[in-house]
Amino acid sequence: MTAQQDEEERTEAVPRHRALVGLLLLVGLIVGVLFIVHELQSAARLQDCVASGRTNCAPIATGSH
Q: Where are the domains of the chain?
């Protein structure tokens, strides 16, 4: 293998590595946004229930023994 081939392999590996890191960041952002949207929808449902005048809006967590 020549020095030129080694240099070409190194320069090709850097963009692949950056693309992989970018893809992982994008996936992380998407998961974070989906989590936030889910939490906001849950809070909106609770607020709608309270605004309609109901008193039993919050679910009661029961421990399973």
A: 17-49
